[in-house]
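Usage example:
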Amino acid sequence: MKRFFPILEWSRGYSRDTLSQDLVAAIIVTIMLIPQSLAYALLAGLPAEMGLYAASLPLIAYAAFASSRVLAVGPVAVVSLMTAAAIGNLSLSNPAEIAVAATALALMTGLMLLGMGLLRLGSLANFLSHPVVAGFMTAAVILIATSQVKHIFGISASGKDLITMLRTLFGNIGDTNLITVTIGLAGIAFLIWARKGLKPILLKTGMPDKLVSILVKTGPILVVVISTFITWAFGLVDHGVKVVGTLPSGLPPFTIPSFDLDLWRSLLGSAILITVVGFVESVSVAQTLAARRRQHISPDQELIGLGAANVASAVSGGYPVTGGFSRSIVNFDSGAQTPAAGAFTAVGILFAAVFLTPLLYFLPKASLAAIIVVAVLSLLDFSVLRKTWVYAKSDFVSVAATMLATLGFGVEIGVSAGVALSIAIHLYRTSHPHYAVVGQVPGTEHFRNINRHEVQVSPSIYSIRIDESLYFPNARFLEDTINDAVSLDPAIDHVILVCPAINFIDASALESLEAINHRLKDADVKFHLSEVKGPVMDRLKRTDFLEKLTGEVFLTQFDAVCALDPDCANRAYHDPHP
Amino acid sequence: MKRFFPILEWSRGYSRDTLSQDLVAAIIVTIMLIPQSLAYALLAGLPAEMGLYAASLPLIAYAAFASSRVLAVGPVAVVSLMTAAAIGNLSLSNPAEIAVAATALALMTGLMLLGMGLLRLGSLANFLSHPVVAGFMTAAVILIATSQVKHIFGISASGKDLITMLRTLFGNIGDTNLITVTIGLAGIAFLIWARKGLKPILLKTGMPDKLVSILVKTGPILVVVISTFITWAFGLVDHGVKVVGTLPSGLPPFTIPSFDLDLWRSLLGSAILITVVGFVESVSVAQTLAARRRQHISPDQELIGLGAANVASAVSGGYPVTGGFSRSIVNFDSGAQTPAAGAFTAVGILFAAVFLTPLLYFLPKASLAAIIVVAVLSLLDFSVLRKTWVYAKSDFVSVAATMLATLGFGVEIGVSAGVALSIAIHLYRTSHPHYAVVGQVPGTEHFRNINRHEVQVSPSIYSIRIDESLYFPNARFLEDTINDAVSLDPAIDHVILVCPAINFIDASALESLEAINHRLKDADVKFHLSEVKGPVMDRLKRTDFLEKLTGEVFLTQFDAVCALDPDCANRAYHDPHP
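Running the assembly step on the lines above writes:
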């Protein structure tokens, strides 16, 4: 029971102390989350209130199932961009249809996460290698920042790749609204200054270090309050400043998501990508934070928590959510002890949805854009390019290709191409496993690589040791290697495959071994195995391979060579340097 | 030079003996190839003469570059079916457009094969695991046989999946032409009898065994001659028997393939699949036959040979070709010694194209269908299902899924789904590498798995040995395993990663090691490495990982434990059972 409902564990020891710590964290995260949720909904191309909805019920659902104590779930930048791309694919123009598609996407994402969690398939996230994630994130940040430039200039632009975005931006640059630009750039300047310059000032007042770090991160709410007030006070809407406008007041609407099969089919690919990218990001944040307090998180349980959060988002008018990076750190630093902090945050957002929405009418879109730009630019990190270049060229290729594909063709093609490429590189690498042709170390029963050690070999015996399990990516490599050796050296009468490092032989590799045996038989060469591990031998016994084997299976390589060449024992027990 | 032009090698020793052996083989293969090439063109949905064209110039091009001495290249059943599917995707109805698409497909396939050969990417064929190939071939055979039923019944049917084919067949079964059915079924019966019953009869006449085996395989030409004569003599065309009709007489036309970008884009996926499937089939036949004479083939050189053959097919009005299974065996058994036999075969086919085409007017399509059905049904082999079920369930899933997807959705979705699934299963398996928590064997400096041996451990030290290289599919597994261990056992102060089996650490795994180091630091646990291989260490030195490492790198696991726990040396040098 406790495995599926971690809430049963942490709620038991819930004390007044824990409550007050969770409440403090919840208040701080709420202040941070109100502007962020509005801004990310804007980024996703959705009505601003959907951000608030995605930041309320999902947090409560996550709290009920989560294994992480401090992960802060809700709308995040990258998933919002991916939502925009997914809905962009559908070429909808009716806002009601767009909202329906967004909730359907949340439901699909939620069901996939739940399914993966129940089937314990958290390890599927391994498909996303670190170079792919790093290249994708860097490119996504650039796309997100560029997509906000239109709001800051008060012009229109479109496109899901960098080239199209920049072309449409430059095409409309003449429509720039100067007051909007002023608001946007002032917002950016203030937020950057708040990060760098505000901290020393606050520290001088003697406030504790932790409080200062948290206060600095509430800068966005100040931008919201001040820019809204100015826009209202000076009637800037009449001067062309675009504002959030009327937001519906009230609790999130109960929504029955669409089950339109055509809609689901066209969103399927996007939902898979959002599921995987969202999960990978969440788990890595959750693990990092859990380790700091030596707590335990279960990736499969996180899948269930995130799945529940997305289903909750779907039935309350929201869109796909996941664990946020900076928000979770604020939650942690503010002292959140249990997932209840998330539930309290949800209450704060619900309060905002009911009472504060009228106040947000005059909030300029440029301010929200400024908040997004500063939030994501701090995530920009090109060092991975240099780092992988120095460390391993194959990884560098993955990073660079993913980055370029994402910038050039958008998030969906970018991440798909990156995954495909990194898997191809991986298969290519494992298709050339480490191997050694071995000979006997004189005076011993040991066999070592003939290229690295002074060893003795019998001309009629070819002994090859493969240092990896045999499966389809490397099955043909073994065939080719043995074929080549035998066809180039007519003296060979025996081939011995030395197997101490082989943990598994799949059906493809078995087929290759059969082909090797068959071809060697045609060439009058016997095929032997030595040092086969127990479980591998058990599997081979279920086939007729051992019956058809022209040679024998030997317990040790020494036994094998001695059976085929009587000199072997002499070499082992006579000192080569008398 | 000889590496790229194997012809330089075999042509030097070319004697009158070799010539006569090659000529005999060429005559036999030509007799076999004439009906097959017409039949496979029909299967591909192309005019019958394109089969002859694909069986002439490509054979000469292959002979110039091939490393296999006996592979017989030309139109084959599976690639013809895939060509039909590729062209079917385009929904063309104009025969001229269909021919243009077929030559474009041959050109694309040829260029891809050449490109892979020049880049020495033969190992990319590893993406096709044996279960995928076996499942795909079995399903393709069923689809091919079913697709010919319409010709045998003289009705129309369509579809690229089994369900659609069967539905349209049953829908039109009322139109059955009885004379056509008689011809078709008689052809099938004769061909099956020729395989089984003719052999003993011929053997009784005292003919050599080898000659009999070859004569039995020329049955199709008899079917062609007899059914054509009967159809002409009795005027069966007037009774509704569909015939091949007018074939253009003359040499293959020089063709400039289309470079229409839209056409290329829509054929791209199909061309990739044909390239890979065709290459894998060719190489496995070529390797099997080469081994019998202890000859050497180079997969990369085969790519170049097959690429040249397909480019030749494209410029001479043909369609995609590859190495044929049964035809190569006949070539081999007939005594072909060099690729020149293929070139002589091409001359035979050219002769047929110039002089014999008028005679083929009355050849019934039902006879060609009978030839195809009998040829492919001999390839039908369900034993792989039972074999993989017994051997490894994961491979069985690959076979069954590929087979069902091919039958249910056609060859292209079938093989793509199979490849994706087998790669996913492989990644899932490698994402859970073999590992062991190790302890010290008392009285020794050795460390062994604590679950299998009586060993002693220091409670504050957690030593884990991973028996595989670290790369992205298993990077997170290591993180999770160490996270779990440390969070569940508060006594742990040191984690030692024992690395003797780690040949490579990719950037994802390095990131995981950094994350482990970082998280252990947060939890006040030191992270050490032991027994790191030289090349791995060299790579790590290029990063700042070793500087940030909270613990140390030890040469041996014994050194590591002794440095952290002074009892270690006592355990090693005091007899535990005095």
